[in-house]
Design goal:
With 465 residues, the chain is mainly α. The chain has a single domain, classed as Farnesyl Diphosphate Synthase (Orthogonal Bundle). It is 61% helix and 1% strand. It has 19 helices and 2 strands. Strands 1-2 form a two-stranded antiparallel ribbon. The longest helix is centred in the middle third of the chain and has 24 residues, at 293-316.
Length: 465
């Protein structure tokens, strides 16, 4: 296991493993850590944007925004022309400077940013290639959503000073999302089928197959779904369930089901339980059911945190309490970003998140969006970064790699928050929207054309790094 680079303020949480013999104990203690590092912080934050002297989320003049847009366009043009020439390193350097300036980040003066870019490119392409080799019919939009978690797992590997590799368990976990979403969230699937699936999948994650062999290795050959013993309600979904069980086999390649790594499977059962619970976020006009804001907040915090603590377990096998606290915090933040990006779709589907619930209650998204930006800029009191040495970073740099990756990640997420808000102008007050526009590296009207995540994905798939 890597050295503990994230430490808690009390009780030496940086050295205490989060390890329990029963799932009930794991679940109970995990919920305590979740609340302390998600909703407790969320409720304490102001409902306005960070003050104007905040150096991370500062104001830009229209002149600065126009100048940055020109720099971005100029860089893209030079990159296309020079990426395979002897001048490519100079182009990379310009791109690195533009990235750091746009996100208000201190530069990595040791040049390691190029290694990070190339590692990211390699990891993402390995993921896409492996996914398409396993399932050539996989939905590309679903695959894009699944790839987001690969980004965060990549960042976590860097933070922990671990080798940047795509493991079988990383692949299996990320592919569970496109395969399970319909069975959990779709309104077209009967409640009976959802209930039956929730039961068998929980058992499959937490306990495993009855004939589990710790010495076996899954080679990626698709399961014969005719051999699955499914209830009548699930037989129409046998192909998808077969794929889901295959993804669990990929995870079992890396982490044997034993006492040392039981936390891996408890964390997976936790995220599945939270996904199942998230059906309570669906308003049902037919029987007059509508969740309260308190219910929505609780489910969002638990589900978001669970998705990221599972990534930590799949990368390390075991986690300290301090790392649990950090990942719970980060998971909630990323869940809220995802919810803001999905506001339009969620409104159509009567799915209530903190943002859609605010709209249904007749409020603007001013306060919830401002608080999300505040959340990205405030770590919980129980989490702090220790000074560390890293094989990737060194004393030339202003920040240790752990903190640099975290800061880069949250500032990039803030830009994505602003981009999502640009698509939802009618849900903001004019005053707030103007102020939010002033905090964007480029003007909000330009965000409608950029779509940053998909642009990055396009660059990665074309292997332009």
């Amino acid at each position: 296991m890597a050295d503990n680079n994230i430490t808690g303020d009390t009780n030496d949480d940086g050295n205490i493993l989060f390890d329990f013999s029963t799932y009930e104990e794991f679940r109970t203690e995990r919920l305590k850590i979740n609340y302390e590092n998600t909703l407790k912080l969320w409720y304490s934050l102001p409902s306005g944007l960070p003050t104007v002297d905040n150096r991370r989320v500062r104001r830009y003049s229209h002149r600065e925004q126009r100048a940055r847009k020109k720099k971005v366009m100029r860089f893209c043009a030079y990159y296309v022309l020079l990426k395979r020439t002897p001048y490519k390193k100079k182009v990379y350097a310009k791109g690195s400077q533009l990235w750091h300036d746009s996100l208000n980040l201190p530069s990595l003066r040791d040049g390691s940013i190029f290694d990070i870019y190339q590692s990211f490119n390699r990891l993402m392409n390995e993921f896409f290639d492996k996914a398409e080799n396993y399932d050539s019919a996989v939905n590309k939009d679903e695959l894009f959503k699944a790839s987001r978690l690969v980004w965060y797992m990549f960042a976590f590997e860097l933070q922990l000073n671990l080798p940047v590799v795509l493991t079988d368990s990383m692949f299996g976990y990320n592919m569970l999302y496109p395969y399970t979403d319909d069975l959990v969230d779709s309104n077209d699937i009967s409640r009976e089928a959802k209930k039956d699936f929730a039961h068998i999948f929980h058992e499959r994650l937490l306990i495993g197959e009855s004939n589990y062999n710790p010495k076996s290795h899954f080679n990626g050959v698709r399961t014969n779904v005719d051999q699955l013993q499914l209830s009548p309600s699930l037989k129409p979904f046998a192909d998808r369930i077969g794929k889901i069980f295959d993804m669990v086999k990929f995870i079992e390649n890396d982490w044997k089901r034993d006492d040392e790594h039981r936390g891996v499977y408890m964390s997976l059962a936790t995220i599945h339980e939270c996904q199942t619970k998230s059906t309570l976020q669906h308003a049902r006009p037919d029987d007059n059911y509508a969740p309260t804001m308190a219910t929505v907040e609780q489910i969002s915090a638990e589900k978001g945190g669970a998705s990221i603590i599972a990534t930590g377990f799949l990368i390390e096998g075991r986690l300290t309490r301090a790392k649990m606290a950090y990942l719970e915090y980060l998971g909630f933040a990323l869940q809220l970003l995802d919810d803001l990006q999905d506001v339009t779709e969620d409104l159509k589907n009567n799915h209530r998140t903190i943002f859609t619930q605010s709209i249904v209650e007749g409020q603007t998204l001013d306060a919830s969006t401002a608080r999300l930006i505040q959340f990205f800029n405030n770590l919980p009191p129980s989490v702090k970064f220790s000074e560390i040495d890293s094989t990737v970073s060194n004393k030339q740099n202003d920040l240790p790699m752990l903190e640099y990756i975290h800061t880069s990640m949250v500032m990039f997420m803030v830009v994505l928050v602003i981009e999502a808000a640009a698509q939802l102008q009618r849900h903001y007050s004019d005053e707030f929207y103007r102020e939010l526009s002033a905090r964007s590296p480029i003007r909000l009207k330009n965000h409608n054309k950029v779509r940053i995540e998909k642009r990055i994905l396009s660059v990665v798939r074309r292997q332009w790094f």
